[in-house]
Amino acid sequence: MEIEEVKPVGLDKKGVELIVITGLSGAGRTQAMQSLEDQGFFCVDNLPPSFLVKFAELCAQSRGKVSKAAIVCDLRGGEFFESLSEALGNLEKEGFHLEVLFLDASDETLIRRYKESRRRHPLSPHGRVLDGIQAERQQLEELRIRADNIIDTSNLSSQELRCKVAELFCKAQGLGQMAVSVISFGFKYGSPMDADLVMDVRFLPNPFYIQELRPLTGEHALVQDYVFGNPMAQEFMEKYLALLEFILPNYVQEGKNHLVIGIGCTGGQHRSVAIAERVGQFLKDRNYDVKVKHRDAAKNQKGGTAR
C-alpha cells in the first residue's frame, strides 16, 4: 500500500509586500499605519521584532488573502526592539520583499507634540522630554541609515502625512486610487444614507411611460437608447462627467479613499440605473476602483407607480 506524502503549504514569499514602520516617538507612526490600512494593507501595531519572520510566513501561507502587510515596530517593544535590525536581516535572507519606512521630526516639533498631548516620552518618563528624544535618536540611528524611505513630518499635518504615505507606497503599486461606489436608487425608497454625492435625474424623460420599456431596467440597451437619445440627457452627461473628472482627483489629493455617488430617479428602475451604468464605466476607464449597485431596480419590475 502506497502512502501519499503530505506536502506542507508552500510559501509565496514573492507575493507578499511587507512594510516595516519605525521612527521617533511622536513622529506620526500611527497616522502612517492608518493610511496604509485605508489602502488595503493588513496592519499590526507594536509587533515584537522576533515575531517578524513568523508573521511574514503566515502571510505567505494565506493563499493571497494577506498580500500586503504593514508592521509598526518601535521602542514600546522594550528590550525586544533591540533585535529589530537582526529581524530585518533575517526577513531578507528568507527572501521576503521588505521596505522600511522611518518617520522623523525635529526636536522642537516633537517637544511641542508631547506638550500638546501631555504624554511622557517612553525613554524619559520622569525627566525632560528632550532627554528622551535625544536618547531615542541615538538608539535609532542604525535603523535610520537602514531605512528605504525617510519622511520628516515636522511641517506635515496628520492629513498631509497620510497622503504622502499613500502616494509613496500605494500609487506606485496601483493601490492608491480612490474606490468609488455608484448606487442607483429610487427617491420614493429614500436616499442612500452613506452617499457623499447625490444627483437627482428625475428631470429626464421617463421610460416608464413607454409600454415596451416599462418592465425593463436601465441596464437594458433599449432603455439606455431611450434615455441617452434625448439631447438634454446627452448635454447633462457631458457636464456631469466633466464635473466628476474635476472633483475626484481633488478628493484623492485630500486623502479620501472611498466615495459613494448616489444617482436617483423616482423608483430607481430606469433613468438612475442607465446613468449609474454610464458613470461607472466612465470612472473605470479612468482607473478608479468602481462598483456599481442598483439598489431598487428589482423592486419595480412588476409594475406600479411611475419610475
Automatic annotation (TrEMBL):
Q: Which residues form the RapZ C-terminal domain?
A: 178-297
Q: Which organism is it from?
A: Desulfosporosinus fructosivorans
Which parts of the sequence bind ATP?
23-30
- Tell me which InterPro entries the record gives: P-loop_NTPase, RapZ-like, RapZ-like_N, RapZ_C
Q: Which HAMAP family match?
A: RapZ_like
The protein's name: RNase adapter RapZ
Q: Where is the RapZ-like N-terminal domain?
A: 16-169
What is the phylogenetic placement of the source species in the record? Answer: Bacteria, Bacillati, Bacillota, Clostridia, Eubacteriales
Q: Which UniProt keywords apply?
A: ATP-binding, GTP-binding, Nucleotide-binding
